[in-house]
């Protein structure tokens, strides 16, 4: 039997050596009993870490603080599973198992950091796109509302303009203009009473104010000195 040991990166040969050691009753230990459960625990823990990071950092369905806390709790389970896998893979060689565990955990940590950064970037990009869509939709709605308001105002302006009077479009037919004459009566005030001179004593007076009697001599006012309107108002004589 060859004493040459395959390297860690020679997966096929190294795995064959582990299987051969497991089924060889002359050798101590059963490495597959550590390798298989450790690998399953490491893979399950890593899958949960990635899923929680997806929910907390990308989807936003979980608070980021809670997601980071759960990822920190799952990290020891992942490291322990990797160590069990490495301990069985290196055939119970503790220094080699620790070195392989550190390499796998470091590579995985780098991959998880890269994935987390990608989740954050994609989440920020999605939020930026949604904001740009919302802003564009709001600007479209505002422009539509302004255009509708301007259209309604122009429609109102058209109604005001047409409300001034009908607009006739010439069709060539003769038209007839009808003119209505409006007559409005204005009341005429009667002329003011005119003073006269008494033919007997020569004193001037207004007959209507003295009951058509001279205030000096008491003679009745002659009818020929009265105007027609004043004569109509003169009381009848005693004769």
A few lines on this structure:
The protein has helices at residues 11-22, 32-59, 64-89, 94-163, 228-233, and strands at residues 196-197, 204-205. It has 239 residues and is mainly α.
3D architecture notes:
This protein is 59% helix and 2% strand. The termini are far apart. Helix 2 packs antiparallel against helix 3 and helix 2 runs parallel beside helix 4. The protein has helices spanning 11-22, 32-59, 64-89, 94-163, 228-233; strands at 196-197, 204-205. The protein has a two-stranded antiparallel ribbon. The longest helix has 70 residues, at 94-163. The chain contains 5 helices and 2 strands; from the N terminus they run ααααββα. Among the domains are: 11-142, no CATH class; 196-227. The protein has 239 residues and is an all-alpha fold.
Keywords, please?
5 helices, mainly alpha, 2 strands, two-stranded antiparallel ribbon
Shape: rod-shaped
Given as residue ranges, the uncertain stretches (5+ residues, pLDDT < 50) are 157-164
User: Within the largest sheet, what's the order of strands?
Assistant: 1-2
The amount of helix comes to 55-70%
The helix-and-strand class reads mainly alpha
Tally of separate helices: 5
- Give the radius of gyration: 61 Å
The ordered string of helix (H) and strand (E) elements is HHHHEEH
- What portion of the residues fall into strands of 2 or more residues? under 5%
> Average pLDDT value?
77
């Amino acid at each position: 039997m060859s004493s040459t040991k395959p390297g860690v990166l020679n997966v096929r040969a190294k795995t064959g050596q582990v299987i051969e050691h497991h089924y060889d009753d002359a050798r101590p230990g059963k490495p597959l009993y550590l390798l298989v459960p450790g690998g399953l625990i490491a893979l399950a823990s890593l899958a949960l870490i990635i899923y929680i990071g997806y929910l907390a950092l990308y989807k936003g369905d979980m608070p980021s603080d809670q997601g980071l806390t759960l990822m920190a709790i799952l990290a020891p389970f992942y490291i322990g599973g990797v160590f069990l896998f490495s301990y069985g893979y290196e055939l119970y060689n503790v220094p080699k198992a620790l070195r392989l565990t550190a390499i796998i955990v470091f590579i995985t940590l780098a991959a998880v950091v890269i994935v987390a950064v990608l989740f954050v970037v994609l989440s920020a990009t999605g939020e930026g796109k949604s904001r740009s869509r919302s802003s564009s939709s709001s600007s479209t709605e505002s422009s539509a509302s302004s255009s509708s308001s301007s259209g309604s105002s122009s429609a109102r302006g058209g109604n005001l303009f047409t409300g001034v009077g009908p607009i006739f479009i010439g069709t060539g037919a003769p038209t007839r203009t009808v003119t209505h004459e409006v007559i409005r009566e204005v009341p005429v005030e009667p002329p003011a009473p005119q003073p006269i001179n008494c033919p007997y004593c020569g004193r001037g007076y207004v007959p209507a104010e003295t009951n058509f009697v001279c205030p000096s001599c008491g003679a009745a006012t002659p009818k020929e000195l009265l105007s027609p309107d004043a004569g109509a108002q003169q009381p009848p004589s005693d004769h």
